[in-house]
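Protein modeling request. Please complete all fields; requests missing the sequence field cannot be processed.
Requester role: graduate student
Desired output: 3D structure, token encoding
Chains: 1
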Amino acid sequence: YPALRNAGRGTMDFVLALTIGLLAFLLVDMTFEALELSAEAAPMFQGQAMVVLSALATLLILIWFSRRSGRPEGLALAFYIALGIGLHNFGEGLAIGAAFAAGSAGLGTFLVLGFALHNVTEGIGIAAPILKTRPALWSFAALTLVAGLPAVFGMWLGSISYGPQWSALALGVGVGAILQVIIEVTAYFLRQRKDNWLSGPVVAGLLVGVAFMYATAAVVKV
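Delivered output (222 residues):
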């Protein structure tokens, strides 16, 4: 936040596009992972339908809730980004907890380090909507908790009881939340940049966001 506080228009365009790029990767990654897990669930859960319906329900509920007082901007938008990332991190926490519960401490530790690297850029995305405001210090602590604390609960639940259907459901909810955030961030960006929105910094930001998330996810999946 302080490093980007006095960013110019080109840098802001890059950062907002970077946010959209990393969220787009999370959306695709979570969707495929949720569908893979749903295939392992018992037939009674109707895995793929459960994933799609939970994603759509989450999307509709969050759009309705976020737009009750108009389109979210500033700190409100930052909290929605943190929430979407937090739900994604909950799914990651389930995988880490399940690894430790299975006695694979080495795998669990590697996943923690890999996911930490994978999440570095996400902080930039959360900070992007509040760069033109001066939020209170408690806001930064709250944003950190919203984005990161779900991973702790996920690890705890994953270590106690792990089932592919519950992981698929959690990721389905995360897909809907991430999609809602992409819609809101894109709408916010277009409102800020009505002229020449597909500029060099925007294209660069989109590509860098996707590429960084792809590279760090590859490390986790090796």
